[in-house]
């Protein structure tokens, strides 16, 4: 029986679509593609998720191999929080799930400095019973250890957890750890899928 719901943050509860943001800001396609490839898809981005390097170190490392200037890279890092906003339809599920007696947790790959900003700005964090951020523990999904860490930290039974993520390999990792997985498939509309998994009607 599912008693706990574990949420990824990015593109599950918090929209983070850099391509859309750059398009809206009228970046030319060539520069937009370079930013997406050299920054958001870089090894350095993953290292920031894992808490292995600082923003300054990431900026220097990317600048050393990219056609983007150091100032351009720094600018992109500075507007990360502007790209983000709560996905209201999904956030509304949190108090509803709490009313039904579910405990709520988050497990997310997230840069530490950005997390520190959003956790204070976004009211919905008050609904969580706990969570794990990759950069705080220097482990990232889908590393098996990060799922084990969440389970051990909060004394959770894996077979009582529903794990929701927008990345397939992260869902597979949770399922290998014994959780029930829900892959959102890139869609930000998850209400019906959660209802189906939990066999309840929320809204």
SSE topology:
Blueprint: E1 4-7, E2 14-16, H1 18-24, H2 29-40, H3 43-49, H4 55-63, H5 70-78, H6 80-83, E3 84-86, H7 88-91, H8 93-99, E4 103-108, H9 112-121, E5 130-133, H10 134-137, H11 144-153, E6 161-165, H12 168-176, E7 180-183, H13 191-198
Parallel strand pairs: 1-4, 1-6, 4-5, 6-7
Antiparallel strand pairs: 2-3
Helix pairs in contact: 1-2, 3-4, 4-5
CATH topology of the largest domain: Rossmann fold
Rg result: 17 Å
Shape category: globular
Number of domains: 2
Q: Strand percentage, roughly? A: 5-15%
Q: Helical element count? A: 13
Give keywords:
203 residues, alpha/beta, 2 domains, five-stranded parallel beta sheet, two-stranded antiparallel ribbon, 7 strands, 49% helix
Describe the structure.
49% of the residues lie in helices and 14% in strands. The chain folds into two domains: 4-15 and 84-198, Rossmann fold (3-Layer(aba) Sandwich), CATH 3.40.50; 17-83, no CATH class. It has helices at residues 18-24, 29-40, 43-49, 55-63, 70-78, 80-83, 88-91, 93-99, 112-121, 134-137, 144-153, 168-176, 191-198; strands at 4-7, 14-16, 84-86, 103-108, 130-133, 161-165, 180-183. The two termini are 21 Å apart. The chain is α/β, with parallel strands linked by helices. The model has no long low-confidence stretch (mean pLDDT 95). Helix 1 runs antiparallel to helix 2, helix 3 (43-49) runs antiparallel to helix 4 (55-63) and helix 4 packs antiparallel against helix 5.
């Amino acid at each position: 029986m599912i008693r706990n719901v574990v949420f990824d943050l990015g593109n599950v509860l918090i929209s983070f679509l850099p391509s859309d943001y750059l398009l809206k800001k009228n970046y030319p396609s060539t520069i937009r593609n370079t930013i997406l490839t050299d920054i958001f898809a870089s090894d350095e981005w993953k290292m920031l998720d894992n808490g292995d390097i600082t923003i300054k170190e990431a900026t220097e490392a990317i600048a050393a191999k990219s056609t983007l200037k150091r100032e351009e890279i720094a600018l992109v890092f500075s507007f990360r929080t502007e790209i983000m906003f709560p996905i209201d339809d999904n956030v509304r599920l949190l108090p509803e799930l709490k009313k039904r007696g579910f405990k709520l947790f988050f497990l997310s790959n997230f840069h530490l400095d950005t997390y520190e900003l959003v956790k204070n700005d976004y009211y919905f964090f008050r609904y969580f019973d706990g969570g794990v951020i990759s950069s705080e523990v220097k482990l990232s999904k889908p590393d098996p250890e990060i799922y084990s860490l969440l389970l051990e930290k909060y004394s959770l039974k894996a077979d009582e957890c529903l794990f929701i993520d927008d990345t397939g390999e992260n869902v597979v990792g949770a399922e290998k750890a014994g959780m029930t997985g829900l892959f959102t498939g890139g869609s930000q509309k998850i209400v019906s899928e959660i209802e189906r998994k939990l066999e309840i009607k929320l809204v």
